[in-house]
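Case study.
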Amino acid sequence: MQTLRYILMRLAKAAVILFAIVILNFCLIHAAPGDPAAVMAGEAGASDELFLQQLREKFGLDQPFHIQLWKYISGLLQLDMGYSYRQDAPVWDLIMDRLPATLLLTGAAFVLSIVLGVVAGVMAAVRVGKWADTAITVAALLLYATPLFWVALMAILLFSVQLGWFPSYGMESIGSELTGFRYWLDVAHHLVLPATTLGLFFTAIYARMTRASFLETAAEDFVKTARAKGLSEGRIARRHILRNAILPVVTLAGLQAGQIVGGAVLTETVFAWPGIGRLMFDALLQRDYNVLLGVFLISSAMVLLFNLITDLIYLLVDPRIELNT
Amino acid sequence: MNAFMKNFLRNKGAVAGLILLSIVVIVAVIAPFIYPQSPWTMVQRPFQPPMALDGFYFGTDVLGRDIGAGLAHGARVSLIVGLVSTLVALLIGLPIGALAGYFGGIWDDILMRFTEFFQTIPSFALAIVIVAILQPSLSGIVLAISIVSWPPVARLVRGEFLSLRSREYVQAAILSGLSPMNIIFRQILPNAISPIIVLASLMVASAILLESALSFLGLGDPNVMSWGYMIGAGRTVLRQAWWICVFPGLAILFTVLALNLIGEGLNDALNPRLARKGR
Amino acid sequence: MKKALLSGLIGAAMVATAAMAEPKSGGRINVVVQPEPPGLMLGLIQNGPTQNVAGNIYESLLRYDKDLNPQPSLAKEWTVSDDGLTYTFKLHSGVKWHDGEDFSADDVVFSADVFLRETHARFRVGLEHVESITAPDAETVVFQLKNPFGPFLGMFEAGTMPIVPKHIYEGTSFKDNPANATPIGTGPFKFEEWKKGSYIHLVKNEDYYIDGLPYLDEIYWQVIPDAAARAVAFETGQIDVLPGGSVENFDVPRLAGMDNVCTTTEGWEFFAPHSFMWVNNREGWTAKPKFRQALMYAMNREFMKDVIWNGYAEVAHSPVSSKTRFYDTDVAKYEFDPEKAKALLDEVGYDGTPVRILPLPYGETWNRWAEAVKQNLDAVGVKTEIVATDVAGWNQKLSDWDFDLGFTYLYQYGDPALGVGRSYISSNIAKGSPWNNVSGYENAEVDQLFADAALKASAAERQELYTKAQAQIVEDVAAAWLLELSFPTIYRCDVKDLVTTAIGVNDGFKDAWLDR
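After joint prediction, the assembly is written out as follows.
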């Protein structure tokens, strides 16, 4: 009962934050120079007053700012995210078209980085001071310091161009008309490079954090007690230390899961991955206001959702934590 | 202070980082003397590989500009971007965190909601939007980086203030009628400074990375030669001329690495209790 | 007065002999489209990528060979009356829209007189000379002009006058018609699917009115946002055709040097992309003609051609491209001469006020170009500052006249009356568009020359007037001309007959076939 009330409170708060985000973003994006009509005129190679006026009328941009804002918000309240000026389609459809690709990419990168990062972190921690520890620590530091897009470029050069192992762009072999299992195999093949490059950066963070957290927990009293009881080292590491050391990792994972949209812009650009990050960037350059606002809204909602989930996981892992609204 | 230095210097990584960073800083300072000409000047034939010509150890780029000059002058820009945006982020984050932590209650609630609000918007996406609004210029980029990187500062400072506020010496200062400003800046802040310094060193590093990512997307300032700008400009010719892109990439890698190592060293030296456990 | 009876059959025979081997039917082709078009309804949107794709879905009455001679398309033959006022087109019979409806002359009248009049800014300019458009019978269309208009026969290209289906659009709001998402044309390829952010799929029109055409079964237009990734996709064999401009110039020689890869700079004759900088004629130092001349002498355009465009360009000496009709070969030329530039700057007493350069936000090539101009100007002592923007910002700054030097490139559309005059006549000065006389150049004599030349029907008379106009505009440096650009199309050599017309791949897949 208490949990339910807590969740409801959090959801109400989230709604307020989302509302503020909508207003802020609306003002921000309208402050950028030019508008969607100007961009379309700029690309058309020819335009005149009539052309621009027609576009602005069609998009509703000829109306005062506060009316546009009011229209957008009242649309949202009816669960209508508006229409894309440029792509001539409802924003909701566009986002739902692209969201699965991004979720697949970031989901794969997320799982990869957590598994790899935690394993590497634990390996380093149990061999603290040995060469394996040093190697993992140095590798993590290097990965953490390298620009992500740079790794992506190098990976394409090596694995696509030189070795020809993986495709360099896209999410599927276009026009192959594969179905079922073979289709997913094809997608997985395309997924390897982008998911790995995106995942490596986070792997480095998880590895460092797991190592530090593991070492800190290992020095706690209850571990000494367990050791005194004569439990095997492997059992202590798994059942006692890791369980407690994982908490900060969960926090970070929640943060990462929330940031999936922004972080994928670079990867999606380099690998031509048809996801939502790229949709956002294009919408920004094209001043496709509604699409941009829609992506921000959805991604912010995801951040809030994942924050909530993280806190609930905390609750499961460690029941001592108070429900503090 | 002495114990701090000893602790810091005992950390091999931190010393290596310090040496690396010193090199970068020295290059940045003496750049105008070793490369008196503007890094934009087209001084040689384009696409000359490293060492192919006397005095052009890093080769030339697509327009025949000296990559070496770009690296040296770029060091200044990248460091300035990193430092200034971190400073601005501190200027925003410190007061917010301090006020929230010190006054608590409704202030805490409002300021922390405000912070949460900024943490909810995907940060890289927000940075891109801000640069698009301000149009790519050095100040716009610095501002964008600051705006997306201050929330962690505010949260950290708030946490420190919350715990320090209940200390006896602070309570005593409050009772003796010192003004809140005085207490915040004279009494609490000096004691909260060490984790802030550690965070700041890491923020400089991520600001440099963020600037390079923005440049990569074509949102760099075309009037100043930064490493990110060099990579953004060179990536399209990566296949013909690896050196245009690789050298600034390495420069970023080493600088960010150095800053991270120093940050860790500082962390260990400032919190010796944790440090011993950490190794 | 020009007497013309042009038979389409001759043109068709010429195209046929160009093909050496016997074409094979079948196969699929992968092409890059960059950037992803905003839509495919060619009557509403005419930007580059839309024309690339939709030029194979929609058709107009004519096509143009590489010397800009008209060729049959929907019209099989046409006549122009002696007084140059009546244009009569005979249409192909048995033409069907992609949805199975019959195509007729009514569709042409509707498209030109109703649809495009409302939606197509560039076409409207031509319509001003038109008295009436009528369809005496289902296979005949007559354009009656108010006055002779020299370039009129050049307006029947798919991007200028796409024919749209009357049965779908009549009486609807054109811009909101849901059919815009699934374009219906008469062309050789039908729209099949558009996976946003990924690809556009066109399939062969089995009922195409010319037997045997098209040869290809399907075309996939792929969206790859990053230029380097596009080059890699071509290298690894996933892409067969890179239309002009889809990779950075620096990559062209490398890709062209690969096995089984051909390039051509043909297929742009109709557009003749002409790059230049708008020079703000209204205020600041750039308002002084001598200062503008100094800019011209300061720029090393040979270097720009060789290094930035890898030789795929010619130095532009005049507002008219050398590939366009009525270019004057004897026009005065500004050679690279920094000393002369400095002397001119001294003469006008330049005080070091910075000049703002607005680059074109179309990729790295254009950024390097702005940097090169900046260096050239710095070298003669002109202080400069590059103002970076994205497409929206660039558009706004030019539209609001908030610039000193603004990069752009414009198409010439085969005739100075269509593609050149618009940038220099004073009646075309207005805020709000980056495509009119943005420089703000005003010269009554030039206005008169352009006005007269458009209405003359004789080529010799027009040449005389355009020669005068060019000399005056070049003397005044109304804009700072840079290069006549070539956008090489890069493709696998087993793709045959890809570029057969003056608009290249825009309608190229009608004739293309695969020798595999």
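Observations recorded in class. Chain B touches chain A through 40 residues (CB under 8 Å). The domain at 2-41+53-278 of chain B is CATH 1.10.3720.10 (MetI-like fold). We will return to this complex in the next lecture.
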